[in-house]
Amino acid sequence: MTDFSNYITRIKEWLAAYDGPDISIMEVCGSHTAAISKYGISSLLSEKLHLVSGPGCPVCVTPTAYIDRLIELALEKDTVIVTFGDLIRVPGRWKSLEDAKGEGASVEMVYSPMEILRLAKEHPEKRYIFAAVGFETTTPVYALLLQSLIDEGIENVQLLTALKVMPPVIEWLCENSERIDGFLAPGHVAAVTGADLFLPLAKQYGLPFTVAGFGAEELLIAVYHTFRAVANKRQGKRFEEVQNCYPSVVSATGNVQAKELVNTYFEESDACWRGMGVIARSGRQIRAQYERFDAGSKVIWEDHKKNQACRCDQILMGNCLPGDCPLYGSVCTPLHPQGACMVSEEGSCHQYLMHQRTR
């Protein structure tokens, strides 16, 4: 057995044998929720250790008013909404983009925002609007798209933005939740922002943050380090406030070039989160000098449930598990989703159901 194999074995033994006070850590990132479910990591944990999902799926936290606005635009003459596939089925207040497309709305699915450049050139008579949702990970791509539109003189493309940033919503969770003892920090976000992004929050609230990768072993190691840091803190021992368990991709300061590009085209703004309302400074909007590329993003502030029994909002805040929702797995399934958490492949409800995860 190699030293690394022994190390992994010792980690599994500690996680299974832990018998101290209950510890709950939040995997903020939707990709982490998917990976934890896929690899069965929660099944390796003692009954005293808990992983809860958070608001790290960009589709899941997008408010219903944003979907409603996309539908309105898609029904306008010579206007085409361009989006990723998972957003098409997210319910708005009354219907989804998929429903609207069946009623004649113009909706195109793509795999990259840059595909809109080709569409706009091929059909200059049409107005194309990209549904720009995402966190710090994808915002640089939208900044690059804006730069390309300017460089190529394309004037028939706009963005409807619902862009979010992580620190303010994590701060909101720290202020409004008594259940979270530490955070598994998103590796993709940290690759852009740097691991030091989480240091002020770790110091302010005395909670450990661990930047994690997405492979089975590297994720297991990060989960262990987070639980161990909480246990050490409770015993009065020293613990690292921010641990970077994804050093092959994440540095302390992040991608400086990507951050500069984002700051060129976007500025800080308040943003509306599904289930949590408006959180100050938690979004990014297109700067005033590039406002001609904005399709009306600044007026989207409302969120309404399509089904009042849906508990997506509580799941996104870590207050309950998908199985606690009365609709889960019966009325609400991937084929007939009642909430955004069941639609997206990164959504907690979707992942729990697909992998039969109960913890």
| CATH homologous superfamily grouping of the largest domain | HypD, alpha/beta domain 2
Parts with pLDDT < 50 across at least 5 consecutive residues = none
Tell me roughly what share of residues is in helical segments. 25-40%
Order of helices and strands: HEHEHEHHEHEHEHEHHEHEHEEHHH
Largest β-sheet summary? 6 strands, mixed
How many structural domains? 2
* Shape, principal axes of CA atoms: globular
Class by alpha and beta content? alpha/beta
User: End-to-end distance, in Å?
Assistant: 31 Å
Strand content: 15-25%
Strand order of the largest sheet: 4-3-5-6-11-10
How many strand units? 11
CATH topology of the largest domain: Rossmann fold
Mean pLDDT: 93
CATH architecture of the largest domain: 3-Layer(aba) Sandwich
Give the class-level CATH name of the largest domain: Alpha Beta
User: Nearest-angstrom radius of gyration?
Assistant: 21 Å
* Number of H- or I-type helical stretches: 15
